[in-house]
Amino acid sequence: MIKGQVYRLLRNTAILLAILFVLDRAIGIGLEHLFYQQKHGDDFVSIYLLEKANEDLLVLGSSRASHHYNCNILGPATGMSCFNGGRDEMTIDYSNAVLPIVYKRYVPKIVIVDLSPSELINAKDKQVVFQRVATVLLPFANRHPELKPTIALAGEEELYKATASHTYPYNSSIGSSIQNAYTHMGHVSIKGYEPLIGHMDSTTYKQALNFNVAGELAPDLVAMFKNIVANAKQAHIRLITIISPFYFPMNVAGNKSYAEIKEILQQNNLEFYDFINQVPFSQNPYLFYDEVHLNDSGAALYSKMVGEMINKNNGMTR
Amino acid sequence: MLFNSLHFVFFFIVTTLLYFVLPHKYRWFFLLAISCYFYMVFVPVYIFILFFTILVDYAAGILIEQNPAHKKSLLALSIVVNVGFLCFFKYFNFLNDNLTALLGSFAVKNPVPALKILLPIGLSFHTFQAMSYTIEVYRGNQKAEKHLGIYALYVMFYPQLVAGPIERPQNMIHQFYQKIEFNYDRIVSGLKLILWGLFKKVVIADRLSLYVDAIYNNPTHHSGISSIVATIFFTFQIYCDFSGYSGIAIGTARVLGIDLMENFRRPYLSASIREFWGRWHISLSTWFRDYLYIPIGGSRVRISKHIRNLFIVFVVSGLWHGANWTFIIWGALHGIYQATELLLNKYVFKKDKQPVKRGLLAQLPNFVLTFILVAIAWIFFRANNVADAFTIIRNIFTLKPGPLFIGFAAGFIYSILLIIFLVVSEVNQEYFQNKYSLIYNRIPAIRYTGYVLLLVTMLMIGVFNGGQFIYFQF
């Protein structure tokens, strides 16, 4: 009697798992195809960066990179082809993971890494940030196994799930894949640069966001930045680290991350451009979309200034 | 260990297999051991607090039964110990912060520092469950449990250890003595509850939370319409989160052969606030009814006292949820709703009993009104602080101009479709006895299609990094 029930449960579970296995594979293959059809949008930026980019000048960083570096201005200003590989919420772990894959395919002349002054601080939400990056990198893990250690920072579970399921790596991507592959809806993207139109209402933003200025350094994030530096030096790439403008003035004295970034770059004789409290950006609402993002006008002016500095310094440490 | 993690999937499969392989006489010990492990995955050291309260309540139960003359003081002692731990861990910093603010207004510094401690997970739940045991022994409704291991298992049974349902000893303790045979139908019925609970959590609740968090963590920057949408989303999010958890807990227990009480009965199909509380977090609302509301007089008193009793129960219920003024206001709002409903029924509509159940369409205006009232109260429950809650309310009631925040467009569309799916499913359960359900369909092919659809949807659009269940924090 009980044996019969156990057999029935095992048989039915096996049938269910078999159906699920076949469907998961089929749907996964379909989603993978759809994913790589994208012609614009966030995933497209990663696909292009990892699979196709061959520009002389690459920009990496978070949303502040993606909204601040207009390649149509920065490219002509430096006389180089340019692609902005910045992507919303993608922090230093993302840059550290993708750059070696890019270098394996080709060697850009200049790589700009846009950082926040507190990029290397051991923030409370560090694990959440790792999770976000893992979600973005997961669809590429089979093609680029080098990404797996970065994905594993969010927990080994992510890799197990991606191994067990073909659909899981493309989780939540179906809507945006269709939109970015077959429609023109969504963000406008100019060589990876995403302009923000309109300016901030300075009355809405009363105080600066808390940037963990008093936090301690995260050794793993410091190691990642050192790795980015070492990889660039090894490939003879001109690595420029930039902190782009903020609306509110920021006091970086005592910010261990800022000091560490500066020290690592000085030790390696690499360029560092600090725009934190720079005129004409600081407290100019007409150049900002919100307190941390320049609008299109701000980005145009900023990209021109960055281009001029790149030309002026031409390899000199600043 | 979260129910929505791979860790739990492995834990559940391995322990369930071992459980059925073991002879009956060893199963209680096995369940207790894995429950200890389950608890210790969170903060291991806190298990000693649990052991201590278990020993106190176990001894109190036996002593209450053996010493009728002193049973009142023994019960009081047990309650003081339980509530003492709850107050220390949950309310000390809240009271101290308020004292600091109060003294600060007189320019006096509070010498008592804040405690840097984590709240033991599920403390409010297992404290209430333990208290129900000693109270029932005191009332003579439950014999004192002589087997320490079985009593410990009653408090620590892992499926409901951290977020309920808050069980009663009469429903549960005897089940640990029964020999449980492997039963296909019971196991499948438990697995279906787990699947549906997981779907509610991973696909619906955590999807909605992405939008809700974006608005509620930054309310000053959002418009009235975005605040309305976020509040509606949260109303469904918290339901799917908590009822999803309860479904997984009840389903897991059912697979192991233990029946736990129903915790949710389609609460948003309530035609009144009173009915809502008969359908929402049933194990807690009946706990408050049995151990607080009725002992202080319940409804068999003057109407002014009746209103006072309702108000006390709901404020305490708010405080039970969290040491924050937002929860107290949430509870007080429900107290006000209930009191208003009581007065309207008595003096305006002239009816004392719950309305006779009518059809879906006839009830619709009442459903909508109840939903709106409940949603307004949820604003306080979700807001990070009282000021944020009032900002959201201001945004909504002044229809603060501005665009509708969409965020991740596909995610927004999924959210709306999932809410429609949930409502249809709830109406099907309530009014059509699940006749059109996929996973409860009598045709096997449709049932299997239902299982596969839920699983594939989870893989395709589930949010797997949504983190812990909202009620774990209580």
Q: What features would you describe in this structure?
A:
The complex is a heterodimer of chains A (318) and B (474). With 318 residues, chain A is of the alpha/beta class. Chain A has twelve helices and five strands. A five-stranded parallel β-sheet of chain A has the order 2-1-3-4-5, sandwiched between helices. In chain A, helix 4 packs parallel to helix 12 and helix 10 (219-234) packs parallel to helix 11 (256-267). The model of chain A has no long low-confidence stretch (mean pLDDT 89). The model of chain B has no long low-confidence stretch (mean pLDDT 90). Chain B has helices at residues 6-21, 24-40, 47-66, 71-105, 123-139, 148-156, 158-161, 169-172, 184-216, 224-255, 273-279, 282-293, 303-321, 325-348, 360-382, 386-397, 409-431, 444-461. Chain B has 474 residues and is mostly helical. Chain B is built from 18 helices and no strands. Chain A binds chain B through residues 2, 5-6, 8-9, 12, 15-16, 19-20, 23-24, 27, 31, 128, 131, 135, 154, 157, 160-161, 165, 167-168, 170-172, 174-176, 179, 185-186, 204, and chain B through 5-7, 181-184, 187-188, 220-221, 408-411, 413-414, 448, 451-452, 455-456, 459-465.
